[in-house]
Amino acid sequence: MRKVTGSRAVPSIDDSLRSRRRAVEAAGLVSRTFGLLCTVVYMSGLTDFAPKTLSADMTMACWLGLGLMAGANLLAVCAWRRPDSRWYPPFSALQVLFDTVTIVAFVIVSERDFSQTTWPLLGLSISIAAIRHQLLGALLAMVATSAAFILLLPRSPDIAFVLGVNAMTAIIAGAQSTAFARQLTTLQETRRALQHQATHDPLTGLPNRAQLAAYADECAGRPLAVLLLDLNGFKQVNDTYGHAAGDLLLHEMGVRLTAALDAEGLVSEGLAGRLGGDEFLVLLPGAGAAAVTAACDRIREAVRRPAGLGDGIEVTVGVSIGVALRPAGDAAGLDALTAEADAAMYREKHGRMAA
């Protein structure tokens, strides 16, 4: 049987990072769409912002920009739809590449063919890289844009300004983006830790009552077996060796219970948790009578093995198990099934004592 732990529902990225990625893609889509429209208007010659006739190089740069911006927008749509996909990082890197090539091509041709100053636009590609890939991305974009400017415009009097402004833009934007990314990572880790604390038992690490209830709600309408476990002899261990030894024993029983439920061929999924004290609960969706019997046998075998508690102390405890079975379509909730399993467990425990 494959166990399902409380971490099963945790996504690869949390909602805050997903929202941030979508915001970045939306901003990219809007800005590039605006750039596409401006490029079309620029090429049309219908305004005073561009000469009536473009040079061959500028025409080629415009067509290149149109193609790259359209391609980047397609990547942005895919990234916006699946911000948690494993393809998001390469899609993001490709968008930075397309944007950088577009901006560099326009700047180089316009600086060479016209009198207006356009090299400050290089800072835009550096800022884009910083937003998407923090300091490393900003530095790589700075190197690429600066190298292109030096190689293609070696006689430009603005080379020193380009290098200086690019370097400052990369350092400031990259450092700020990196700091924000680290803060976001810290918040994500804190959120996951708080979520784990809210849904797991701190002593055994197993799902707690709230997580068990949530999982039972997911199984509504399906066949469900509920196993209530109570350790036999736990109170004597607590009374004899102290609560610290009792806590060690409970932790060990949690480990054994998880291992016992990890046997292939019993049921397809299941969840084991601790209710409190020495009581544990196991949920087996889709399990038939044979699978439940096999699971109970494995649990009994695992629990009754001697457990070492340190300082040469070794104890042996048993377990009483009550079972409640819900057929498909039955509306019985977890509380009702747990009460039924508790009654069955009580009968088994006291039947053993009477025997």
Automatic annotation (TrEMBL):
Q: Which SMART domains match?
A: GGDEF
Which InterPro entries does the UniProt record give? DGC-Regulatory_Protein, GGDEF_dom, Nucleotide_cyclase, Rev_trsase/Diguanyl_cyclase
Q: Which UniProt keywords apply?
A: Membrane, Transmembrane, Transmembrane helix
Q: Where is the GGDEF domain?
A: 222-355
Cite the Pfam families for this sequence: GGDEF
- CDD domains found in the cross-reference section: GGDEF (cd01949)
Bilayer-spanning residue ranges: 26-46, 58-79, 91-110, 130-153, 160-181
Name of the molecule in the record: GGDEF domain-containing protein
| Source organism per UniProt | Actinoplanes sandaracinus
